[in-house]
């Protein structure tokens, strides 16, 4: 065992002599001496540190201290780091090896000579390695300072370290992101998150690095549907917010729509819509207090007032007020109809024959049967003609056109409305031809309260003309003046290329080939639509500047028309909501005003104070006064906007 002694305040460790081994250095000496060896070494059984080679050996040290000694034990031994001392006879104690410094030349290590072993110790001091990068490690290694990347998620001043860099946002696994995007959201130092939860009925967003998901309100659009109770409804959404398949009559609708009941029991819910089925309407006619319509199968239906059998039905069996469509007879041969105050007329085609029938009040011959009668069923007009193509019902007279273009009228002629210069009532059809170059060429005829107008083409390739006759008290005949209040013969109206006509009670309108609309006659309630307050307009005046009019119809004191884009327009008196513009419009409207927003209207017909129109899908709508059931909606109430009529 080595022993320790103290000489002059120095601590000395004396070890047993051990044989020197070539290439090895055995060192001991005073503690605290410097050491210049490497950092690899081992300790043998004698407790000495063995260095596999030294550095900075001090070979110029004096051979000895000159102190007398008897043997090595008499020499003062220091740490091995200070060299090895032996007794050398006459020379006394001698240091056989110079001191070995412990400095390993690595700037970041703390180099020490340990007592009592005399071994050099080199401790790495990471604090001696400094780097401004917050995301690198400061490590003292054998070769000096090294700065490897800090582990991911190591805190750094602005966030966390990722891939050796400080990320102030979130980390998406490959790069640093701001952390404010919907799909790359995250607070500083966190992993990015995708805020899209895949739910179409939540409002997903990144708010200050945090994903938030707010439920959308019921009815909000979602993937082509509507949100319903927190889920995207692939059918239609009921009013209570529940999702429905959208295939039933009570809850019909397409994806992304609100469910709605089909208006009529005869409807079917097909692909989310309610087509009218077998009751597709082809034509509608509105009278004073009743209405009639034809479906595409040639069936005739009427509703409303039936006091004078104008509904074509026996009052004792069906009542004097019909609040809903009621079929007239069992024939399916009707091709056209028209109604006015208390009667109606229409054409039936069977086996190539076109026969004319009228019904209702015929007290002054307006049914044309050759007798005065009131008929609750359609009766054929007198004569043997089977080539009728179109008919009209005036207030108390009727007219019709044949396939050959001949024109006939009958009924009262008190104001010349028959055009035959005979004020007597005519109980059967009389041809209108006096004062005309030819009798043929007539294509359409319309009747007002006491006047008649018709479109005529005098020859092949000729331009279509308009001729009017009868009462001209408000200029409704359209000849430019009202000097004669009655015109017994047809009078040519200015203009040409006329396509279609309508006659109101005391006004007339027509559409020309260029799509322009012209009106004349009484304008007390602006039914001419020309914006002027002038009460009478004795010559055609253009309605606005539009050139896309397709249909027009005149009522008592209002007018409606359909344009080629399928929009519906009305103007004139609105005292009974006959314009269909809503409850806020109840006076009079000067100019054509659009009714609703639909673009599928195809025709319209104005009654006394109500109106009906048809749409592209074969449905029919009515609005205005309903006190006689003329709207066909099952009650006697009025409607200020169009309502679907069920069959």
Structure keywords:
mainly beta; 4-stranded antiparallel beta sheet; rod-shaped
Explain what the structure shows:
- With 647 residues, this protein is mainly beta.
- The protein has four domains: 1-124, no CATH class; 130-195, no CATH class; 234-275, no CATH class; 281-644, Methylamine Dehydrogenase, Chain H (7 Propeller).
- It has one helix and 52 strands.
- The strands form 18 sheets. The chain has a four-stranded antiparallel β-sheet, with no helix packed on it.
- It is rod-shaped, with a radius of gyration of 56 Å.
Q: Helix share of residues?
A: under 10%
CATH superfamily of the largest domain: Regulator of chromosome condensation 1/beta-lactamase-inhibitor protein II
Main sheet record: 4 strands, antiparallel
The CA-CA distance between the termini, in Å, is 125 Å
Radius of gyration: 56 Å
Derived from helix and strand composition plus strand pairing, the structural class reads mainly beta
The total tally of domains equals 4
Global outline: rod-shaped
CATH class of the largest domain: Mainly Beta
Reading side by side through the largest sheet, how are the strands ordered?
A: 25-26-27-28
Low-confidence stretches: 1-64
Number of strands: 52
- On the 0 to 100 scale, the average pLDDT is 86
Second-tier CATH architecture of the largest domain: 7 Propeller
CATH topology of the largest domain: Methylamine Dehydrogenase, Chain H
Quick summary:
1% of the residues lie in helices and 40% in strands. With 647 residues, it is mainly beta. The longest helix has 4 residues, at 315-318.
């Amino acid at each position: 065992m080595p022993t320790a002694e103290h000489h002059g305040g120095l601590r000395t460790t004396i070890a047993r002599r051990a044989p020197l081994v070539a290439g090895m250095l055995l060192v001991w000496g005073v503690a605290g001496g410097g050491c210049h060896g490497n950092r690899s070494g081992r300790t043998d059984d004698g407790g000495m540190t063995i260095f596999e080679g030294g550095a900075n050996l001090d070979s110029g040290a004096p051979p000895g201290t000159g102190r007398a000694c008897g043997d090595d034990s008499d020499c003062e031994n220091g740490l091995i780091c200070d060299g090895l001392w032996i007794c050398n006879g006459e020379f006394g104690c001698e240091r056989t090896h110079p001191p070995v410094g412990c400095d390993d030349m690595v700037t970041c290590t703390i180099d020490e000579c340990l007592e009592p072993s005399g071994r050099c110790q080199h401790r790495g001091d990471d604090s001696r390695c400094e780097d401004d990068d917050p995301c690198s490690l400061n490590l003292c290694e054998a070769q000096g300072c090294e700065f490897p990347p800090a582990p991911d998620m190591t805190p750094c001043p602005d966030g966390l370290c990722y891939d050796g860099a400080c990320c102030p946002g979130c980390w998406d696994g490959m790069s640093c992101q701001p952390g404010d995007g919907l799909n790359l959201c995250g607070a500083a130092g966190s992993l990015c998150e995708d805020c899209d939860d895949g739910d179409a009925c939540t409002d997903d967003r990144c708010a200050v690095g945090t994903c938030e998901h707010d439920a959308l309100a019921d009815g909000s659009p979602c993937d082509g549907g509507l949100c319903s109770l927190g889920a995207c409804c692939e059918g239609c959404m009921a009013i209570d917010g529940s999702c429905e398949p959208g295939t039933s009559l009570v809850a019909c609708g397409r994806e992304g729509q609100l469910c709605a009941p089909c208006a009529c029991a005869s409807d079917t819910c097909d692909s989310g819509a309610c087509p009218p089925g077998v009751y597709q309407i082809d034509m509608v006619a509105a009278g004073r207090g009743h209405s009639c319509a034809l479906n595409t199968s040639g069936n005739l239906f009427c509703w409303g007032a039936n006091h004078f059998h104008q509904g074509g039905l026996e009052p004792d069996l069906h009542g004097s007020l019909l609040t809903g469509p009621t079929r007239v007879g069992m024939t399916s041969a009707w091709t056209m109809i028209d109604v006015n105050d208390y009667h109606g007329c229409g054409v039936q085609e069977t086996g190539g024959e076109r026969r004319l029938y009228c019904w209702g009040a015929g007290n002054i011959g307006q049914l044309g049967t050759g007798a005065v009668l009131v008929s609750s069923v359609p009766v054929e007009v007198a004569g043997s003609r089977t080539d009728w193509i179109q008919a009209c019902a005036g207030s108390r007279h009727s007219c019709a056109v044949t396939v050959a273009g001949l024109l006939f009228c009958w009924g009262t002629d008190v104001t010349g409305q028959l055009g035959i210069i005979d004020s007597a009532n005519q109980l059967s059809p009389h041809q209108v031809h006096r004062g005309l170059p030819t009798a043929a060429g007539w294509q359409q005829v319309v009747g007002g309260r006491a006047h008649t107008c018709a479109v005529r083409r005098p020859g092949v390739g000729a331009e279509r003309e308009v001729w009017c006759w009868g009462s001209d008290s408000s200029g409704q005949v359209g000849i430019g003046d009202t000097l004669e209040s009655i015109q017994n013969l047809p009078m040519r109206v200015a203009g040409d290329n006329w396509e279609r006509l309508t006659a109101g009670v005391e006004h007339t309108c027509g559409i020309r080939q260029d799509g322009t609309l012209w009106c004349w006659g009484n304008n007390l309630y602006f039914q001419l639509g020309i914006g002027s307050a002038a009460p009478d307009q004795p010559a055609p005046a253009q309605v606005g500047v539009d050139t896309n009019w397709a249909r027009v119809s005149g009522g008592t004191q209002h007018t409606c028309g359909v344009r080629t884009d399928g929009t519906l327009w009305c103007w004139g008196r609105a005292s009974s909501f006959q314009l269909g513009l809503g409850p806020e419009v109840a006076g009079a409207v000067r100019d054509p005003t659009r009714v609703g927003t639909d673009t599928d209207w195809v025709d319209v017909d104005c009654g006394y104070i109500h109106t009906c129109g048809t749409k592209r899908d074969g449905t029919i709508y009515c609005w205005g006064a309903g006190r006689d059931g003329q709207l066909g909606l099952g009650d006697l109430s009025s409607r200020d906007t169009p309502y679907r009529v069920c069959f």
